[in-house]
Design brief:
Elements: E1 3-9, H1 16-24, E2 33-39, H2 46-56, E3 62-67, H3 73-83, E4 88-93, E5 96-97, H4 102-111, E6 116-124, H5 130-140, H6 142-145, E7 157-159, E8 165-168, H7 169-175, H8 186-196, E9 201-212, H9 217-234, H10 248-264, H11 269-293, H12 301-324, E10 356-359
Parallel strand pairs: 1-2, 1-4, 2-3, 6-9
Antiparallel strand pairs: 3-10, 4-8, 5-9, 6-8, 7-9
Helix pairs in contact: 9-12, 10-11, 10-12, 11-12
């Protein structure tokens, strides 16, 4: 079966070369691999790197370089959905890495009858300084970044969502496009519709991939705030695609406010209980990291966890305020202006949003030099 690898990127010249090299290193037969690269009008060398890859790398079933004029992720994936030619599409983030057996292991699951496949996604970070390793430890911790199934090892099982996933064509044709009103949560809503359509999402612990964590604290806090904001905003669009754990940082922040007000009124027990419980959890997680990495820098995870949780929680409350008080929905419209619900699923075909630059590649496999 021909499998298409889709990559949507905007200003990713720093990370895209690594992923393109990973694609070239796949053990799955190259003549059965199509590469679909979608650029959102990058201002750096991203488009140049894509075109160089298309022109240089031989032996693939095909390489497409497509335009995403809307720039946002969901729109970029819709361009890829409309144009890929394989029997399945592997969706890989431009900030990610995949091992050499990633496609082969997904293909093996698809051959057994699975419809959507993937596995665990861990975080990596550029640079080996103690500070960056501390940021990475926070990002890889369930306490720092959540309990999503894609972050955990375990037995092969069916899950609600995956980060890097492979979809049979049948699934995409039936479920349709991603909702372009959504920012950080388009995959949550998309996988929700996949499950509602009767398909199961299979996660195999033998399949792994990686994602680059933000290498600086301000960038990481901004990311967490944005993630929380889109959780709040998406609540007004598709609450069913979200889980209880998505709201925990917001509830924690609300608990701080409530406990502070109660303490001001002379009831200090809730405040002591809240901070005692939270401090104990932070301490336990920091101690576990100290044992694992054997470095005293692990102690700084305690304030780092707090900053991450507050950033995410603040984003959630602002998103909820915008959704239910300001009556704002993703895409800059208000609920009063919106005449329809989430973008309906459209089958493939038609002209699409992207302008394709497609070249069928033939010839012997060459070593990647990006």
């Amino acid at each position: 079966m021909v499998i298409s690898i889709g990559v949507v990127a905007y200003n990713e010249e720093a990370y895209l070369p690594y992923l393109l090299a990973d694609i070239c290193a796949q053990t799955y037969p190259r003549h059965q691999l199509e590469v679909v690269l979608v650029d959102g009008g990058s201002k750096d060398r991203t488009r140049e790197l894509m075109e160089r890859f298309r022109d240089r790398e031989k032996g693939f079933f095909g390489v497409q370089v497509l335009d995403n004029p809307k720039r946002i992720q969901a729109a970029g994936w819709n361009v890829a959905f409309r144009h890929f030619r394989g029997g399945a599409l592997a969706r890989i983030d431009a900030h990610g890495r995949i091992p050499a057996d990633f496609i082969a292991r997904n293909a093996a699951l698809l051959a057994r009858g699975e419809m959507v496949t993937g596995g665990m996604r861990a975080n990596v970070i550029e640079g080996g300084s103690a500070w960056k390793q501390l940021l990475l430890a926070a990002e890889n911790s369930m306490f720092g970044s959540g309990i999503a199934s894609c972050r955990r090892k375990g037995e092969r099982r069916y899950v609600s969502s995956l980060f890097h996933a492979c979809y049979r064509r049948e699934v995409l044709e039936k479920v349709g496009l991603m909702d372009e009103r959504l920012g950080r949560t388009e995959d949550n809503e998309f996988h929700y519709r996949i499950r509602k359509a009767g398909y199961r999402i299979c996660s195999d612990p033998k399949i792994c991939s990686f994602q680059y964590a933000r290498p600086a604290l301000p960038a990481m806090l901004a990311q967490k705030y944005g993630n929380g904001y889109w959780i709040g905003l998406t609540t007004s669009v598709c609450p069913g695609c979200l889980s209880a754990h998505h709201y925990v940082p917001g509830l924690f922040l609300g608990g701080i406010a409530a406990a502070t007000l109660l303490a001001a009124a002379g009831h200090s027990q809730p405040k002591r209980l809240l901070w005692g419980s939270y401090g104990s959890l932070c301490g336990l997680m920091a101690a576990a990291d100290l044992v694992r990495r054997k470095t005293l820098s692990s102690l700084f995870l305690v304030p780092l966890f707090f900053l991450l949780h507050v950033s995410y929680g603040m984003g959630t409350w602002v998103g909820l305020f915008d959704a239910f008080v300001r009556r704002k929905i993703p895409g800059g419209k208000t609920l009063a202006d919106q005449s329809q619900g989430p973008v309906p699923g459209h089958g493939r075909g038609g002209k699409g949003d992207g302008r394709a630059d497609v070249r069928r590649t033939k010839g012997r496999r060459k070593k990647s030099k990006v």
